[in-house]
Structures are given as C-alpha cells and as structure tokens.
Recover the amino acids of this structure.
C-alpha cells in the first residue's frame, strides 16, 4: 500500500481555547499551499482510493482542496485518530481497515503526523528523522511489515515547482 501523509496547510497561529482552535480555518497562504499540493499530485497523475482527514476544519479544508485538484470524486472520510492527539495504535487501526487499498491519503496535524510517519518508518522508539511541516506531503510504501519513504515534498518546493511551471524555463531569444 502507498500511504501519502499530508499535514494540513497554514491556518495562522494556534488559539489558546482548544474548542476555538479546532475550528481554525486555512488562511490565504494555506489555501495556496493546498492548491499547490493538489496540482503537484495531479501533475504526477497520483490518485487515491481513499482520502482520510482529521475532523478539524483546517485539515478538512486541505483535504477538500487537494481532492478537487486531483479530481477525487469519493467522499472524504473523517477519522478522529488523525487529530493532533491521535495515537499510533489508532493510526495502525486505520491502516488495518484500509489495507486492501492501493493508495490512501491521510491528512492530519502535528505532533501525531510526525509521530505516525517516523514510527512507521523507523519503529517504536524512533527519533524525529522526518520533519513534517505544514502542507508537506510524503509518500511511504509499505507491505505491512516494513515501510520505506519514497519521497517528501515540503511547501517551499511545491511552491517553487508551481511558480516555475507558470513561466517558461527556456531563455528568450530574439529572432531576426
């Protein structure tokens, strides 16, 4: 199975009140970042059999924008285990339920996304070998017993790709 890890895009600063923080929406940068992720995935012709998202607004919005960009028609599945406080055991349960799928996208938050990714790759006492920034996407291939990080694209790289593809990389020449 291919598991794509996506941390929600920029949503401004955390709020002190946890109830209000759950409803924090993407900001302008976050909307742009989400489109960049979706456009990059579409350009790579990547599709998912399932998109799973934390119930928090910023993750739902990120998942929705990416789904629209890649043409994903299925409903986005809400998974409480992808909240910031989700446990690795809960994440493993998700993987178990979706093990028959070829490719899934999980959209969540830190610290849980970094924990899930690093424990899946390195094991229980894993250091934070892979940093999971907002709007970063990573592809992990797993056969159930071992996992391998295939690639990781941070938001700065995705933005540079989008900006670079908007203009020609060929030098302008003057023809006479």
């Amino acid at each position: 199975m291919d598991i794509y890890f996506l941390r929600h895009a920029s949503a401004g600063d955390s709020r002190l009140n946890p109830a209000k923080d759950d409803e924090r929406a993407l900001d302008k940068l976050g909307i742009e970042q989400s489109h960049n992720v979706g456009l990059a995935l579409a350009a790579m012709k990547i599709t998912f059999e399932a998109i799973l998202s934390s119930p928090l607004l910023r993750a739902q919005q990120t998942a929705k924008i990416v789904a629209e960009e890649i043409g994903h028609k299925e409903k986005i599945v809400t998974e409480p285990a992808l909240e910031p406080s989700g446990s690795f055991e809960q994440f493993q349960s998700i993987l178990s339920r979706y093990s028959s799928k070829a490719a899934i996208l999980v959209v969540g938050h830190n610290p849980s996304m970094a924990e899930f990714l690093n424990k899946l790759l390195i094991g229980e006492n894993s250091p934070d070998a892979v940093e999971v920034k907002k709007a970063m996407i990573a592809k992990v291939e797993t056969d159930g017993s071992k996992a391998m990080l295939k690639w990781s694209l941070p938001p700065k790289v995705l933005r540079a790709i989008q900006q670079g593809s908007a203009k020609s990389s060929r030098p302008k020449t003057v023809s006479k």
